[in-house]
From TrEMBL:
Pfam families on file: MFS_1_like (PF12832)
Naturally occurring in which organism (per UniProt): Oceanimonas pelagia
Annotated InterPro entries: HcaT-like, MFS_assoc_dom, MFS_trans_sf
Domain Major facilitator superfamily associated: 6-358
Keywords: Cell inner membrane, Cell membrane, Membrane, Transmembrane, Transmembrane helix, Transport
Official protein name in the record: 3-phenylpropionate MFS transporter
Membrane topology (UniProt): Multi-pass membrane protein
């Protein structure tokens, strides 16, 4: 199978599961008997421990030939981990299984992104066109699983996760042709610690951690918040789907309309969208404003993520790609989001939807961090 098709399918299957997990897992946990405080703890702990899992996995991946076998193993373990939720739904079981699946499942993100980064160089892969199928599947999950939950019950949230992981395992057992090529010996993959010490990498991680971490409260509690404001599960699914549809349009136009932009302008645009979005969501739950806020997901996540991809695939040399991808996924998308989620439960109990304003405050330092150009600090001599 051609790499573009293989990766498109892998992104689609992974993000169908992720589109089930992010908006609806809190509802499944509530169905399983977890309290709001326990849900916040479980979601936050899961986000935090994924940092350990991602760094542990990616520290072992130093060459392109490692990518596919590791993806196969993690797909199998993820399937087994989520299937175990069927039989172990006590507080202890939810805690143990949450830790286990978050050590395994999220590591598939940097692995697939690292494979895409290799193919960007190797076969000039159109990243946006490939990645948008993941976003499309995310929307499909939002709509389909929302309806299943509403009509057939919350157990279908877990059923959907298991089915998507089973199909992903089957796909991972096939081989894209050509396989990701090895880097030249002179550009062997660097260790994560060495990549972290590169000029500019620390500032890049702080910027992306604040931008992506500010989404944590939205991911964990928007469904519960909007449900309590009277919106049905299917409407919530439509709102989530609308946000990801806007993201798809950004990815689809990446090469044609955004290809000339580097990391810094994309991250600046992401900052502006995130600030406006969180201010709106904290101020109102009127449907027309929710629609506008969800359209801003195109920038708050989409442009921010494309900025990160630019930095990793274009503005760092090949030896740093795997390490930088691991750091971005574990710190910016994992650890910081986990910490924010862990405190989101108590914050939501005290401030409700106004917690979105704290997310707006969280992204403000990014304006100062992006005041200086990134490029001169990103290039190695």
């Amino acid at each position: 199978m051609a790499p573009a098709y293989w990766l498109s399918l892998f992104f689609a299957l992974y993000y169908f599961g992720y589109g089930t997990f992010l908006p609806f897992w809190a509802l499944w946990l509530e169905h399983a008997g977890a309290t709001a405080g326990l849900i916040g703890l479980l979601l936050g702990l899961g986000m935090a421990v994924r940092c350990v899992g991602i760094l542990g996995v990616m520290s072992r991946v130093r060459a392109a030939r490692h990518l596919l076998p590791v993806m196969q193993g993690l797909s199998l373990l993820s399937l087994l981990g989520f299937a175990a939720f069927y039989g172990w739904q006590s507080s202890t079981g939810l805690l143990v299984l949450t830790v286990l699946v978050n050590l395994i499942y999220p590591a598939l993100i940097p692995l697939s992104e690292a494979m895409a980064s290799r193919y960007i160089v190797q076969i000039q892969l159109d990243y946006g066109q490939t990645r948008l199928w993941g976003s499309a599947a995310f929307i499909a999950a939002n709509l389909v699983v929302g309806l299943l939950d509403e009509r057939l019950g919350s157990q279908w949230i877990l059923h959907s996760m298991v089915m998507s992981l089973g199909l992903m395992l089957l796909l991972s057992l096939t081989r894209p042709q050509p396989l990701p090529a090895e880097q030249p010996a002179s550009r062997a993959g660097e260790g994560i610690g060495r990549v972290l010490r590169r000029p500019g990498v620390g500032r890049f991680l702080l910027i992306t951690a604040l931008l992506q971490g500010s989404h944590a409260f939205y991911y964990g509690f928007s469904a519960l918040y909007w449900q309590q404001q009277g919106y049905s599960t299917s409407v919530i699914g439509y709102l989530w789907g609308l946000g990801v549809l806007a993201e798809i349009l950004v990815f689809a136009g990446d090469r044609k309309w955004l290809g000339h932009l580097g990391a810094r302008p994309l991250l600046l645009a992401g900052l502006c969208c995130a600030l406006c979005r969180w201010l709106i969501l904290g101020a109102t739950t009127e449907l027309v404003w929710l629609v506008l806020a969800q359209l801003l997901h195109a920038g708050s996540f989409g442009l921010s993520h494309l900025g990160a991809v630019r930095f990793i695939s274009r503005e760092l040399d090949e030896g740093a790609v795997f390490g930088a991808q691991a750091l971005y996924a574990s710190i910016s998308l994992g650890m910081v989001s986990g910490v924010v989620l862990m405190v989101s439960g108590p914050l939501y109990g005290q401030f409700g939807g106004h917690t979105f304003w704290l997310m707006a405050a969280m992204v403000l330092p990014v304006a100062w961090l992006l005041a200086r150009p990134l490029l001169k600090e990103q290039k190695q001599p």
